[in-house]
Amino acid sequence: MTVTAPSTPRPTSPAPEAAAFGYMRHREYYFDDGNVTFLTDGILFNVHRYWFKRDSPAFRAMFSLPPPPGEVAEGCSDDNPIRLAVSAVDFERFLWILYPPVIGTLKPASLDEWTSVLSLASMWECENIRALAIREMEGLCGPVQKISLARRFDISAWLLPAYAALTTRAAPLCVEEGEMLGVETTIRLAQARERYRADWCPGCNRRAFAQKSQGYDPTQIVLSVFGLTPHPSSTIVSPASTIISVLN
After folding, report:
1. Which terminal CB of the chain, N or C, has fewer other CB atoms within 10 Å?
2. 56 CB contacts (<8 Å, ≥6 apart)?
3. Interstrand relation of 82-85 and 2-4 (parallel, antiparallel or unpaired)
4. What is the DSSP letter of 2?
5. Where are the domains of the chain?
6. Is the backbone of residue 87 left (phi > 0), alpha (psi -120 to 50) or beta?
7. CATH superfamily, region 2-135
């Protein structure tokens, strides 16, 4: 059986020990007492199915299926692993959550590492791990990245605050940000920004606008332009500190 997910095209560090068919055993996540073997990018991972059954309905359903008559269940050995259509890097990072180096600590640190975790947790329906990744990622990315990630991983609570932050920001979108957001979103943001300025400071320069618009909530403009409905956990941060920091 093949389990798919977006991949990260970077190799991980396998152990020097060769296994079946020339595959390499992962140096950290090939346990002597593991009871399910996965293969990705030519690297074997022998881990414990308990964690996958506990956290993932997708794996729970897969493990409950009996093998075809006369065949051995996939994942029972190096010769017959479960082949994952994900990168070894992403899978290793996902295992960081299941096997923390120290109880109570989290090994992922960067946005890229947490994106790997979120990608697999979303695909395999690991809701607790997905929620953890979203919580940890929130402070690691700006509004443009949040919009991109929210659309990719269906994080609706991020959209309204991120759109509002860009609507009230003194600095316009740069080319790179526009490319990341896409044409439609960039145009809608331009519309929201124009309405925001027209309503509260027509003809003002950036500094005058910053002084007059402090504390103004752009929610209704953003909801109208983007056709959104408020999410219960969406929080709009006052634009004052962001605007002033750009101008100073």
Report:
1. C
2. 124, 125, 126
3. parallel
4. E
5. 2-135, 160-247
6. beta
7. Potassium Channel Kv1.1; Chain A (3.30.710.10)
| 239 to 132, 147, 216: CA distances (angstroms) | 27, 17, 8
Pairwise CA distance, residues 46 & 5, whole Å? 19
Assign 25 to helix, strand or coil: strand
0.85 surpassed by pTM = no
Q: What is the pLDDT along the chain (248 residues), one digit of tens a residue?
A: 455 544 444 444 444 454 557 899 999 999 999 999 999 999 999 999 999 999 999 999 999 999 889 888 999 999 999 999 999 999 999 999 999 999 889 999 999 999 999 999 999 999 999 999 999 999 999 999 999 999 999 999 999 999 999 998 888 899 999 999 999 999 999 999 988 887 766 556 555 555 444 556 788 888 988 888 776 655 554 443 333 233 23
Q: How far is Cα 82 from Cα 107, in angstroms, rounded to an integer?
A: 25
